[in-house]
Structure formats: structure tokens, C-alpha cells
Amino acid sequence: MEENIIECRNLTHYYGSRMIYENLSFSVPRGRILGLLGKNGTGKTTTINILSGYLQPRSGECLIFGEDIQRMDPLTRRRIALLIEGHVQYAFMTVEEIERYYSAFYPAWNREAYYELIRKLKIAPKQRIARMSCGQRSQVALGLILAQNAELLVLDDFSMGLDPGYRRLFIEYLREYAKAEAKTIFLTSHIIQDMERLIDDCIIMDYGSILIQKPVPQLLDTFRRYTFRLEAGAPETLPVDGKLYHSAVIRGSGETYSFADEAYVGGWLTRSGIAYSDLKSEKMNLEDAFIGLTGKY
Ligand SMILES: Nc1ncnc2c1ncn2[C@@H]1O[C@H](COP(=O)(O)OP(=O)(O)OP(=O)(O)O)[C@@H](O)[C@H]1O
């Protein structure tokens, strides 16, 4: 049986009287890279804060390595590497000094993983962190995370401040590292093109709940964008259907997104008395699928 490294059951969180989500359940099996995607304010950072034990949800439980995060043994906690907001403390140190400083705290410290990334990203070891740019500081923070050699990596907005070339480098390095060492990763990012290259599974959040949790290839294989021409006199809005996402009329043409097949979409239009022609479907990349599921605004 697959072992779940993270298991969250029925998480409900409120800030004061404001509900962020209710009954969120998900799991992350060992060795998988899972990306949490969602629009601004859907609760991704909140979820990371719950996973890190910093926030206590109103109800529900969050188990990591089978232990409740709120009562976790410090020895178990050591198996988790956390990147929150990508900042490095002790900015007065140099790239070399901070590596030596951190290494004292982590028994499984992998110096080579740190220096391999530092070399790939072309950072000078004698450079003082306080004098680095925001993106360069993120690079050091990522190196310190990888060197912890934890079994689980939790990364919030890991690509903050990195330019496209460094992002690409880091993503390729991270994926290779995770697969070679059978690491489990839970992360968030707004840069969905990056996620498409990196993650195995995605959770897409809407306000208040999870829309889908699926392996990315399965999502891209089964979720389609449909377009059709509307005949004159067709309504300006399309009827809502539980299996169709964000159906809209744009300049005389209709569009909708769905996991259902073409016959279903044709049947929906016919049943609704809408005259149409030229019904077509297309597969999408992860960014377009994300927009199809969550809407444009
Ligand atoms: N400490 C807090 N007190 C009150 N409200 C909060 C607090 N932290 C976050 N919120 C609110 O909760 C909602 C979810 O915030 P969260 O930071 O988890 O979203 P997010 O999905 O990470 O957003 P983004 O994509 O913008 O980073 C937001 O509307 C935010 O304003």
C-alpha cells in the first residue's frame, strides 16, 4: 500500500468570523511532488502554516509521518524542511559561513547539495548575504533547504524573486534531486508554467474548498476546452451545468471547460434549446486548465 507522508482530514479554518475553507481533505504519498494551486487569497499560505504547525485549524487534523503536527515529536519534525517566504536569517554571514552555521543543527546535513546548487546558480561563496539581491537570497535559502536532507520539503512560494533562467535551473535541479532521493514535496507557486515542469500531482483550490486533486498528466489528458459557434439570436449567457466550468459567450462564440466528452456538451446545448455549430474541443497546458477550472477573475 502507498504510504501517505501528509494526511489532512476535514481541515476547517476561520480567521475570526471569516471562513477560509471547510472540510479540506488531502493526502500526499511518499516520493510525490504535489503543487497547491489557487487564486490569491484562497488559503494556500494558510494551509502551509497549518502543515508547519504554526496555525491551529478550527477543526480537523493534519498528520505528517503519522503524527499530529500539533503534538509532533521534535525528532519527527527534523524530517521536515520548511521554506516560508524564502528569507534567510543571519544576513551578516557569508554564503560559506551560513552553510557551516546551519550544518550544526541538522544531523543528515548534505553539504554537497548546498554547494552543488550554489555552483549551478553561480553564487560566490565569500559573498555576504546582506549585500545580495532578493533573488540571490532566495537561492541561498533554497540551498539551505536542500542540504537539510529532509524526507519532506514544504515550500511556500519557492520561486519568489528568481528570474526565469534561475527558476528553470532550480526546478530541473529540484525535480532531479527529489526523484533521485525519493523525497516528498508539498509546494505552492503562482508560476504555473514552472509547476507543470515540476509537480506530479496538483490540488486546485477555489474559495472555501478544493476543486480537484489529480495527477497532472491525468488532468491534462481529460480536461478540455470546448468552443462552438452560436447562431443568431442565441442568448448572451449560457445555462449553468454541474459538469461544465465557466461557460461564456464571447463575441458570438461560446466556450466552456469540462471533463465530460463532446457528446455531453452537444447534449447540454441541444437540451437548452441553443442552436450551435462547429463544436470543437482542445487539450490545454496546466495554466489554461487552471484558468478553465477557476475562472479568469
Ligand atoms: N492572520 C490573518 N488574519 C486574518 N486574515 C488573514 C490572515 N492571514 C490571511 N488572512 C486572509 O485569509 C485569506 C487567505 O490567505 P492566504 O494567505 O492563505 O491566501 P493565499 O492563497 O496564500 O494567497 P496568495 O495567493 O495571495 O498568496 C486571505 O483573504 C487573507 O486576507
From TrEMBL:
It comes from Alistipes indistinctus YIT 12060. This is ABC transporter domain-containing protein. It comes from the Bacteria. GO terms for molecular function: ATP binding; ATP hydrolysis activity. Residues 6-232 form the ABC transporter domain. InterPro entries: AAA+_ATPase, ABC_transporter-like_ATP-bd, P-loop_NTPase. The keyword Cell membrane does not apply. PANTHER family: ABC TRANSPORTER ATP-BINDING PROTEIN YTRB (PTHR43158:SF10), SKFA PEPTIDE EXPORT ATP-BINDING PROTEIN SKFE (PTHR43158). Keywords: ATP-binding, Nucleotide-binding. SUPFAM superfamilies: P-loop containing nucleoside triphosphate hydrolases (SSF52540). The keyword Magnesium does not apply.
